[in-house]
Specification:
Layout: H1 16-40, H2 53-56, H3 70-74, H4 93-105, H5 110-135, H6 142-153, H7 158-162, H8 167-187, H9 193-208, H10 215-226, H11 231-255, H12 263-266, H13 280-299, H14 321-339, H15 346-358, H16 381-395, H17 408-413, H18 416-438, H19 443-453, H20 458-471, H21 478-498, H22 504-515, H23 519-532, H24 537-549, H25 553-566, H26 571-583, H27 587-600, H28 605-617, H29 621-633
Helix pairs in contact: 1-5, 1-6, 5-6, 5-8, 6-16, 6-18, 8-9, 8-10, 9-11, 10-11, 10-15, 13-14, 14-15, 15-16, 19-20, 20-21, 21-22, 22-23, 22-24, 23-24, 24-25, 24-26, 25-26, 26-27, 27-28, 28-29
C-alpha cells in the first residue's frame, strides 16, 4: 500500500473563489467537530465532584480564596493548598488559576466547572481540526476532519473530560495544539506574530502540565514531516522553543527549590503496582504489558476503569508471552518509524507522535505516581486517530490527496462510502462514551463501577466502601444504615485481603463497629491500624473513644494525647481526655479538659453538662447550677 507525503503539485487552489469556498467549508467542519464533542459530553454538566476534584477545588485553601489566591498559586507547588503529605515537585498553576477565577464568581459550583470542561474540550477539538488542516494541507480535507471526529469521540477520553481536576490535561492539549497551529501559520507566510503566539502557547502548555514538554520534539518533527523547510531553519525554530523550555525549567526550579519529589507517594505500592515487582526486569516486563493494554484500549475501549492500581494488574516477568509480545510490538513499530523517517511517511509520524507523547508517563524511564491511567493516553491517542483515519481513507479507496469540495453537502455526498464506515465507528464510540460518562456523575457511582471492572484493586474496594459510609452519614433509617455498613465492611475487608499493610480500612472498620456499639471489634481493627500508623489525629481520637468505652482509660489518654500532638485544637480529643480522667476519678483534670473543650467550642452543651455534674459531685452547688443551666440553654440538659 503506497502512502506518505503527497506531491506538492496537487496543492494549489485555482483561484480566490475556490480558496474562499475552501476556507468556509473548513470553518463549517471545525464547528461541526466542536458541536459533536460538546453534545457528546453535555450530560456531564450535571455531574458532581469526583476523585481529585475535591483537593484541587473545594478542599483547596488557595482556589477557594478566588482571585486573591492566584499570586500564591503562581509561586507554590500544585498541592500546596491541600495537604502536606500530597505535596511534591509538581508545578501546574494554569488549571488551579482557572478554578480560582471560577470560584470567585461561582463558588463551589461543580456544574459550572463541568460546563467549562466540556466547552474547553469542544474548543480544543475545534482547533485540533484547524491545526490538522494546517499540518496536512497537502491532504484531502476529509483526513483532518475524520481524525478530529475520532479524537472527539474516543471513549478513552471520558476520564479527562468528566474529571474536573483533569483540566490540566485539556489545557495542556489546548495550548500544545495552538502552538502547532501558529507555527504552521507562521511557516505559511503569515506574520511573525504567529511565531510569537506559538512560543507563548508552548510556554502555557508547560505551565498546564509537564508532559507539554514533549511538544519540544513534536513541533520540529511536524515541521520536518509536513513542510519543505530546510533542516537549518527548522533547527533555528527549534532553538527558540528550547529557550522557552529553559525559561520554564528555571522558573519551575526556583519555585520548587524547597520542594522535593514525593518519594513516599511514588513508591507507594497502592499507587503504582510496579513497586511490587521483585526486580527491574520484572518491572520492565509489567510496564510493557501496561503499554500493550493502552494499545488494546485504543483499538477496543472496553471495559474502562478509573483505577488500575494494586493489585488489579499482576506483576509479569520476561518469561510471560504477553510481556514479550508487547516488547516486540513496540520494537517493531519503533523500527518501522525510523526506517520510514526519511520518506516522511505519515504512518511513521503517527507512531512517533504516540511514542514521544506517551514516554513521560510510560514508567519506562522513571517511575511515576500511578501504574496505569486512561488520562495518560489523552494526547498520545491523537497518533492512533491519525493512523485510523488514514487507513479508513485507504480502505474506502478515497483519494488522500487534496480534493475540492464546493459545499458541505457535496463533501459528505461524494464520500458516502467512507462516511458509512466512519459513522459506524463514531456511533460505537459515541455509545460507549455516553454510557461510560454516566459512571462519573459522583464518587459512589464511579467506585461502584471501579469495583466491578477492577475487583482486585485495593484502592477501588477501599474507596467504594468510603463512599458507601459517606452516603448514609445523615441517614435516620436504621435498616439502611445496617445494610450499608455490612456492604462497606465487606469491601474494607476485601481491600485488606488484597493489601494487608493499609491502615485506613482498619480505622474505617473501627468507626463502623463503634457506631454499631460493637466496641470489641472496633478495638480489634483500630489497634491494628495504630500499630501501622499513629500520626493521624482523627484516627487517634476515634481510637481513644473506643478505649473509653472499654474502660481502658490509660490507653485512651495516650491515644487522645497523640491526637492533640498532631492537632492541638482537636476539640474531640480534649473531650476524650476529660472522659478518661473523670472516669478515673481525677476530677481536676476532668475539669481542666472540659474547660479546654468549651474554650475551643463555647456551644458544646455536653461539656457544660458534665462540668455541672462534676461540680455537683464536688459539692459546689453554685458552679454546678451555672454549668447545668448553660447546658440546658444549649439543649444538653438530659445528657
Amino acid at each position: 500500500m503506497k502512502q506518505g507525503k503527497p506531491k506538492a503539485k496537487s496543492v494549489t487552489l485555482p483561484n480566490a473563489a475556490d480558496a474562499k469556498s475552501h476556507h468556509k467549508l473548513q470553518i463549517s467542519l471545525a464547528i461541526l467537530v466542536a458541536l459533536f464533542a460538546f453534545v457528546l459530553y453535555f450530560q456531564s454538566i450535571g455531574f458532581n465532584y469526583t476523585l481529585d476534584d475535591h483537593p484541587a477545588i473545594d478542599q483547596n485553601k488557595l482556589t477557594t480564596q478566588g482571585i486573591a489566591g492566584i499570586p500564591t498559586l503562581l509561586t507554590t507547588d500544585y498541592w500546596y493548598g491541600y495537604k502536606d503529605e500530597f505535596r511534591g515537585a509538581v508545578y501546574r498553576p494554569t488549571s488551579l488559576i482557572l478554578f480560582a477565577v471560577v470560584w470567585q464568581f461561582f463558588p463551589n459550583s461543580p456544574h459550572i466547572l463541568h460546563f467549562i470542561m466540556v466547552l474547553m474540550f469542544a474548543i480544543s477539538c475545534y482547533f485540533l481540526f484547524k491545526t490538522l488542516c494546517a499540518m496536512f494541507k497537502n491532504y484531502n480535507l476529509l483526513f483532518p476532519f475524520i481524525c478530529a471526529l475520532l479524537f472527539a469521540a474516543h471513549p478513552l477520553h471520558t476520564e479527562v473530560v468528566n474529571s474536573i481536576k483533569s483540566m490540566d490535561e485539556i489545557l495542556c492539549l489546548f495550548f500544545s495544539i495552538l502552538a502547532l497551529f501558529h507555527i504552521f501559520k507562521y511557516l505559511d507566510g503569515k506574520s511573525i506574530i504567529h511565531l510569537v503566539f506559538s512560543m507563548i502557547c508552548f510556554f502555557l502548555s508547560l505551565l498546564s502540565k509537564e508532559t507539554g514538554i514533549t511538544f519540544l520534539v513534536i513541533i520540529p518533527l511536524a515541521i520536518y514531516f509536513f513542510t519543505n523547510l530546510s533542516l537549518k531553519k527548522n533547527l533555528k525554530i527549534a532553538l527558540l522553543f528550547v529557550a522557552i523550555t529553559c525559561i520554564y525549567l528555571l522558573l519551575r526550579m526556583y519555585i520548587l527549590k524547597d520542594i522535593h519529589p514525593n518519594i513516599t507517594y511514588v513508591k507507594n505500592v497502592l499507587n503504582n503496582s510496579l513497586n511490587a515487582a521483585p526486580n527491574y526486569m520484572s518491572q520492565l516486563a509489567t510496564t510493557f504489558y501496561i503499554m500493550l493494554r493502552y494499545i488494546f484500549l485504543l483499538i477496543f475501549p472496553h471495559p474502562l476503569s478509573s483505577d488500575y492500581n494494586f493489585a488489579q494488574i499482576k506483576i509479569y516477568t520476561l518469561s510471560d508471552p504477553i510481556a514479550l509480545v508487547s516488547i516486540l510490538f513496540y520494537i517493531a513499530i519503533g523500527i518501522y518509524a525510523v526506517l520510514n523517517f526519511k520518506k516522511k511517511s505519515l504512518i511513521s509520524f503517527a507512531i512517533l507522535f504516540y511514542l514521544i507523547t506517551i514516554a513521560p508517563v510510560s514508567n519506562i524511564f522513571f517511575l511515576i505516581g500511578t501504574s496505569m491511567a486512561e488520562r495518560f493516553v489523552f494526547i498520545p491517542s491523537l497518533g492512533f486517530c491519525i493512523l485510523l483515519a488514514y487507513f479508513l481513507l485507504r480502505i474506502s479507496k478515497t483519494d488522500v490527496i487534496k480534493t475540492k469540495f464546493k459545499s458541505i453537502s457535496t463533501f459528505f455526498s461524494k464520500n458516502a462510502k467512507l462516511f458509512a464506515i466512519v459513522f459506524v465507528i463514531l456511533g460505537l464510540y459515541g455509545i460507549k462514551t455516553y454510557s461510560r460518562s454516566k459512571d462519573w456523575k459522583d464518587n459512589l457511582t464511579l467506585f461502584l463501577s471501579a469495583v466491578q471492572i477492577s475487583p482486585n484493586s485495593a484502592t477501588s474496594n477501599r474507596m467504594y466502601a468510603n463512599q458507601l459510609v459517606e452516603s448514609v452519614k445523615n441517614s435516620k433509617n436504621n435498616k439502611n444504615l445496617i445494610d450499608t455498613f455490612n456492604i462497606a465492611k465487606h469491601y474494607y475487608k476485601k481491600s485488606l485481603e488484597i493489601y494487608a499493610k493499609q491502615s485506613e480500612p482498619l480505622f474505617k472498620l473501627g468507626v463502623i463497629y463503634y457506631m454499631e456499639n460493637n466496641f470489641d471489634s472496633a478495638y480489634f481493627y483500630q489497634k491494628q491500624g495504630i500499630e501501622k500508623k499513629n500520626t493521624d489525629p482523627e484516627d487517634n481520637y476515634n481510637y481513644g473513644k473506643t478505649l473509653n468505652k472499654l474502660l481502658k482509660y490509660d490507653e485512651a489518654i495516650e491515644a487522645s494525647n497523640r491526637a492533640i500532638k498532631f492537632n492541638p485544637k482537636h476539640e474531640g480529643a480534649y473531650f476524650n481526655l476529660a472522659v478518661s480522667y473523670t472516669n478515673k476519678r481525677d476530677y481536676d483534670n476532668g475539669i481542666k479538659y472540659l474547660t479546654k473543650v468549651i474554650e475551643l467550642n463555647p456551644k458544646r452543651g455536653e461539656a457544660y453538662y458534665y462540668l455541672g455534674l462534676i461540680f455537683k459531685g464536688k459539692g459546689d452547688a453554685i458552679k454546678s447550677k451555672e454549668y447545668l443551666d448553660k447546658a440546658a440553654a444549649l439543649g444538653a440538659a438530659s445528657k
